[in-house]
Structure formats: C-alpha cells, structure tokens
Design goal:
This protein is an alpha/beta fold. 33% of the residues lie in helices and 21% in strands. It has 15 helices and 17 strands. The strands form four sheets. Strands 5, 6, 7, 8, 9, 10, 11 and 12 form an eight-stranded mixed sheet that branches. A hairpin with a 5-residue loop joins strand 8 and strand 9.
C-alpha cells in the first residue's frame, strides 16, 4: 500500500493568489504624495515622480486639513495635459486615509444627471463632509476558556420545526476574573459563524449581541493548531469582563440625507437613485448635527471635494460655488483644469482657465510643469512594475523618447500592448521590436492629424480647408463662422 502511494504521481492542485485579482487603473500606482515628515517632496516615492513644488504645496494644504485649520477654502491645480494633476489629487485622497471623506467628480457630470445643477453640486459638497459620531456601548471582552453546546437529539420523535433549540454555555476570563454565560440559539449561531474556539479573544456587544473575534491569546502561540499567516495574537484582556467602550462611526452628511429622505432608507445608497433631496430635510439634519456637536456626541470632519475638468462648469455653477464656500460646514474644494485663457461657459467673456475672476480670487493656485526626460523614464519604470510587464532597458528608453515626442499618456498606453505582442512571439521580456510594432499599429494625435490633413478630401464633412501652411494643429479660418462650402 505504502509502495503504491510512493510510486504513484501525487498531483498538487494549483493555488491561485487571490490578492492580485484587481483592475489596474491609470492611477492605481499612487499610494500618497511622497512627502517626508518636513513636507519636503522626495523625487520618487509612493508612486509620485517629480512635481516637487506642486506636491509640497498639496502637502501643506493636506496638513492644514488634518489639523482642521481650514474649511471652505479652494485649491486650483492648473497645468498642461498629462502633468499629473489628477495624480496629485489621488495622492491627497490616499494620504488623508479612510476616515476623511474624499469625493471626486468631473465637471461634465453636472449636466448629465437627472437633477438640477445646484442640487448635484450640493450633494457633492455633502458627500465631502463627514460626521464623526461617538456613542458608548456595553461590551463583554475576554478570552474563551471553553464553549459547550448541547444539541438536541435527532431521533424519529424529534421535532423538525426547530422547537428544540440549541443551548450552551461559554466560559470567558480576563487576567482577574472568570465567568460562565448561558447561550441562546442566536448567540450559538454567531459563535459558529465566527468559528470561535478555546483560546480566542472576543468581544460581545450587549445591545446587539454582535460577536467580534480580536485574535488568539499569546498563551496559545506555541500550540500546534493549524494556523495561517493571517492569525493575529493579542494579550488576554485585563480588569473586568463587562466594560463600557466608546464606539466611533464616520458617516457623510449626504448618507444621512438619503437615509432620512427616502422611503427605502439606506437601500437608496446602493441603488444610486437618490433623487433630489428637499431643503427642509437638510435643515433638520443640520440642526440635529449642531445639537450633537454641542452635547459632544459628534464632530464635523471637513473632507475634500475634487472636481476635475472644472472649466466644463457654467457661470451658474461658479456662482453657486462662490456662495457654497462661505458655508461654515463647507469642505476643501480642489479643482483641476488644463485650459488657458478661454471662454467661461454660458457667457461670451474670456478668463484665465475658464473660471470667473471673482472665484479665481478665492483659489490657491498650484501649477504643474511638464515632466523631464529623466522623470518620464522613472514613470515608465513604475508603470511597468504596476502592470507586471518585464521590459528591456532599451525598450524603456524608446518609450521615454516616444513620450517626449508625442505624449506621456500615449507612451504609457503602449506598455500593455507591447507586452501582448511579446507574449504572442513567446518572448521573455518586451524588446524594442515589440514597442516599434505597437507604435506602427496605434497612432498618436500628431500622426493621426497629419493623416487627416493628407487625406482630408476623402473624408465626409471635412472642415480643414487649406491648412498646408498652418501645421497639424492649426484651427481652420472658418471654424467660428460655420462649415466650409462643399466642393
């Protein structure tokens, strides 16, 4: 028997790493702003490269937000396309952590929602304002000594309707005392669900009966039980078993609005169909929150509202933002744009960045600069690592050169495409010929525009006209006046 097992082939099933099943986005490599304790920007840190001045400015704003020193202020991230404005905003979100609300939206979203513009902006503002609610609850905290569960017999005469419920006892201890508690059917079900066993340190909420497993006691650290790498060891609790503990919940004002304004309550948060919320509901909620603040039960957590492509807002939205920033519970507003001097939407007047002068006067402006060749190469290295692509150094140099001549975004888009071409030829790492292949397959903006200029007579409704002397990006002389006459 033993020989048969020894001679046979033992097949080990493939174990998949479930922690890496996630989508890779344009900014998924961003972990923070990459600043040290003195708020000085490191050259390469937490996925951020270059833009030291912009990151240092964002870090100062971030520090003031954490200390609660500013509210109702606005910051403008202005720079050319592809200079890392959204990346800096994402770095701010990561650095603030989970408890500080961070809401993101694009300027064009305002016009595609089934509600008026000011309501959409109000909801966005209230998504970025958190309420930290404190409440005291009684809990039982201790180390499990023994769990006894009495299961009723399952003979032919036993009731199958569940009338013979399970009963049991649990023995909990701290460093100073030990107590036996009787268990009902629901508590037994919760214990089985959490897989509580002897040696675990648990807490039981007396009000809700919720059981939370904190970890295993250090006393059992040397036991030969089957334990994974995730097993957490904690000290045996001290003092009495029954304690009063302060529980802190952080919710946004928008979540409170939705729960109190819809018949289906919090389910509307998952459906996404929140609809317009009446101002009376918000006034009642604001009054209740102010009452909790006076009693010390709650405190306001001003978060961050990030509006990308802010030049897409119109004059009505800008007027609303001016007024909303004066509210005492306003969040920090961070906006970004890549426009120069252009028309304010909804008017015939031009203004820097397409933003009215009176709102620009309220903004702290952080400018971003184009990346240097060295910084582009570092970004290519980071994105290759993030997308899990093995690439030769000369191929990376070629991508960096392409990024300088065309755009950084175009160069980064070629990484995964070149990797697929490499896999097709069964190569170990991406080489220059793979990058050259995808460069010839996918055009950048300049080559595509040049192609249109050369073959514009064969396209329908072309309005380019005589553009030979103006370059690939020239604007046709008849663009303002209407379509060119058909030939």
């Amino acid at each position: 028997m033993a020989a048969a097992v020894a001679d046979g082939d033992v097949k080990v099933s493939e174990v998949r790493d479930l922690t890496r099943i996630e989508r890779i986005g344009a900014h998924s490599h961003i972990r923070g702003l990459g600043l040290d304790d003195a708020l000085e920007a490191r050259n390469v840190s937490q996925g951020m490269v270059g833009q030291q001045d912009a990151r240092r400015g964002a870090g100062i704003i971030l520090n003031m937000i954490r200390e609660g020193q500013i509210a109702g202020r606005a910051v403008l991230l202005a720079g050319q396309p592809g200079t890392g404005k959204t990346a800096i905003a994402m770095g701010m979100a990561k650095a603030l952590g989970e408890e500080t609300p961070f809401a993101m939206m694009a300027g064009s979203e305002i016009f595609s929602l089934e509600m008026n513009k000011t309501e959409a902006l109000t909801q966005a503002f209230r998504k970025a304002i958190g309420v930290r609610i404190k409440e005291e609850t009684e809990i039982i905290e201790g180390e499990v000594v023994e769990v006894e569960i009495d299961r009723p017999g399952g003979g032919s005469g036993a009731s199958t309707s569940g009338s013979a419920a399970k009963t049991g006892k649990i023995t909990l201890k701290t460093t100073e005392m030990e107590t036996v508690y009787d268990l009902g059917a629901k508590m037994i079900e919760s214990l089985e669900k959490e897989r509580v066993q002897s040696g675990d340190v648990i807490t039981i909420d007396k009000a809700s009966g919720r059981i939370t497993k904190l970890g295993r006691s250090f006393v059992h650290a040397r036991d030969y039980d089957a334990m994974g790498a995730q097993t957490k060891f904690v000290q045996c609790p001290e003092g009495e078993l029954q304690k009063r503990k302060e529980v802190v919940h952080v919710v946004t004002l928008h979540e409170v609005d939705v729960i109190n304004s819809r018949s289906q309550g919090f389910l509307a948060l998952f459906a996404g169909d929140t609809g317009e919320i009446r101002s009376e509901v918000r006034e009642q909620i604001d009054g209740k929150v102010a009452e909790w603040r006076e009693e010390g039960k709650a405190e306001i957590v001003p978060g961050v509202l990030f509006i990308d492509e802010v030049h897409m807002l119109d004059i009505e939205c800008f007027s609303f933002l001016n007024r909303a920033l004066e509210n005492e519970m306003a969040p920090i507003l961070v906006v970004a744009t890549n426009r120069g001097i252009t028309k304010i939407r909804g008017t015939n007047y031009k203004s820097p960045h397409g933003i009215p002068i009176d709102l620009l006067d309220r903004l702290l402006i952080i400018s971003t600069k184009p990346y240097t060749e060295k910084e582009m190469r570092l970004i290519v290295d980071i994105r290759c690592e993030e997308e899990d692509v093995e690439m030769a150094d000369d191929a990376k140099e070629l991508l960096t050169k392409i990024g300088q001549e065309t755009s950084l975004r175009y160069a980064l888009h070629l990484i995964t495409s070149a990797s697929l071409v490499c896999k097709r030829r069964k190569g170990a790492e991406v080489e220059i010929e793979d990058v050259s292949r995808v460069y010839s397959l996918f055009m950048d903006v300049k080559r595509s525009t040049q192609f249109l200029v050369e073959y514009q007579s064969q396209f329908m409704y072309n309005e380019i006209g005589a553009i030979a002397g103006g370059g690939a990006y020239s604007i046709p002389s008849n663009a303002e006046g209407g379509a060119a006459p058909m030939e």
